[in-house]
User: Which sequence fits this backbone?
């Protein structure tokens, strides 16, 4: 796999709590008491192993939890109870109006190709059709009840799709075959995900009847990966689905041999919007409680797997970080607020509702971060704010070094759920997690508890605990994100 191994700080032997600076020892940067408390929170998170218990309970209580599904209210009730149990204050829910999209049946089969329906297969009386592993993309419209049958035209990129003459797409099923690269920072996802989100509208404009994409995932297996698509207003909506990687490769080979006809049946439904909830809990600040450092993760998940990594792991990381901060003898001066957002996957309704509900309070949000990258180890911290405050993460170096992580001067991205806060000028910080394995399972049936690596999850929870404590307690302000940098790309 074309992945360059990370540096020694990341792959080096696990540094156990015993060798980390203890709260009573001065840290290498000359240390304030707050760094001692932050280091203690880090060490407790590493030693407790509680992060895995949070996500295990979530998965076992709620299961998959797409907006509007049966699992969602179970997850909300669990989050409220869990926050109370771990010692958070002001625990409550906030309403979110969210879409309800329900997956139906899903069939993709090659009905004719050089191999399928050939003399060899018919003489053996085998099925004249070849089923492909497929899943509907989130938000897709259905095919007609009996499906669509059409010839397939393949493109290798969105650019190729955009350049495809209309007459080659008209009446066809367009197959978008973009191979996702494996990378620690998930850069391959950014490059490949447009195939999932944009293909349907580009192909529809050219007269295509449906779209199938190669799954935006990195595992060489048959599990298809779902995820939301985006229809462009004013362009006809056509059905869209993802093929498992192995099945996409098969279709690609069949198309190299000759023309292929595909039958696609997808029966999703868009039902009336429902009421969902963001779940909020806090560790109140000791001296500036009205100032907020927000830690987010999303409570919803796609329903093919269990949402253990996406984003059960992120929920566990921020809950464990907050639990350790709540356990500190001296609390940080600012409030640490945990928000488990509703409906990240299918439209960001929870994030948008939060920003609206708290509009008057956004000026008091001094920092925000999100954990939404599975169980990966934290390897780097970065911040997005104005140039005057950009060096604020230097304080974190002694806390992160024992975990094998560094701080970077590169600007942070902020996750999807904190993007409305960034848009309002709230500085965002990233604790970047190793995403090398993440896209093997992301949005697929393989997103299950058994894929979590406990030592990695504990390291991430420890990094979030230490960094959040230190930043929430840091003297001075963090500035604001300058206007031109507020939009996330
Ligand atoms: Zn996610």
Assistant:
């Amino acid at each position: 796999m074309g992945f360059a191994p990370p540096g020694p700080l990341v792959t080096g032997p696990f540094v156990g709590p015993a060798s980390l600076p203890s709260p009573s020892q001065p840290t290498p940067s000359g240390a304030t008491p707050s760094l001692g408390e932050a280091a203690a929170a880090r060490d407790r998170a590493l030693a407790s192993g509680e992060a895995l218990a949070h996500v295990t309970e979530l998965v076992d209580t709620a299961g998959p939890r797409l907006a509007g599904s049966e699992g969602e209210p179970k997850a909300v009730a669990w989050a409220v109870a869990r926050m109370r149990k771990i010692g958070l204050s002001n625990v409550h829910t906030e309403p979110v109006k969210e879409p309800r999209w329900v997956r139906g049946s899903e069939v993709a089969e090659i009905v004719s190709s050089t191999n399928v329906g050939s003399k060899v297969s018919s003489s053996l009386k085998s099925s004249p059709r070849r089923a492909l592993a497929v899943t509907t993309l989130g938000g897709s419209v259905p095919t007609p009840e009996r499906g669509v049958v059409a010839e397939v035209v393949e493109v290798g990129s969105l650019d190729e799709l955009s350049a495809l003459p209309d007459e080659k797409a008209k009446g066809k099923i367009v197959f978008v075959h973009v191979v996702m690269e494996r990378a620690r920072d998930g850069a391959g996802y950014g490059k490949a995900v447009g195939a999932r989100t944009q293909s349907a509208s580009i192909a529809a404009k050219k007269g295509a009847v449906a779209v199938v994409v190669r799954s935006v995932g990195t595992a060489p297996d048959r599990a298809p990966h779902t995820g939301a698509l985006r229809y462009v207003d004013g362009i006809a909506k056509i059905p869209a689905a993802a093929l498992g990687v192995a099945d996409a490769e098969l279709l690609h080979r069949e198309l190299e041999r000759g023309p292929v006809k595909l039958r696609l049946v997808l029966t999703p439904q868009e039902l009336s919007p429902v009421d969902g909830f963001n779940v909020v809990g806090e560790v109140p600040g000791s001296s500036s409680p009205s100032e907020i450092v927000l830690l987010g993760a999303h409570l919803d998940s796609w329903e093919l797997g269990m949402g253990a990594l996406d984003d059960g792991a992120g929920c566990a990381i921020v809950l464990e970080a907050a639990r350790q901060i709540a356990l500190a003898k001296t609390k940080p001066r600012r409030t640490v607020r945990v928000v488990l957002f509703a409906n990240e996957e299918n439209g960001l309704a929870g994030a948008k509702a939060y920003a609206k509900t708290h509009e008057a309070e956004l000026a008091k949000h001094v920092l925000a971060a999100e954990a939404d990258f599975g169980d990966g180890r934290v390897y780097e911290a970065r911040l997005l704010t104005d140039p005057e405050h950009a060096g604020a993460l230097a304080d974190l170096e002694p806390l992160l070094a024992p975990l094998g992580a560094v701080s970077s001067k590169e600007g942070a991205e902020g996750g999807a759920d904190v993007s409305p806060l960034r848009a309002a000028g709230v500085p965002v910080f990233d604790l970047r997690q190793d995403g090398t394995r993440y896209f093997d399972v992301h949005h697929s049936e393989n997103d299950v508890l058994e894929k979590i690596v406990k030592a990695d999850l504990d390291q991430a929870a420890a990094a979030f605990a230490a960094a959040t404590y230190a930043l929430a307690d840091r003297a001075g302000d963090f500035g604001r994100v300058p206007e031109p940098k507020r939009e996330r790309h």
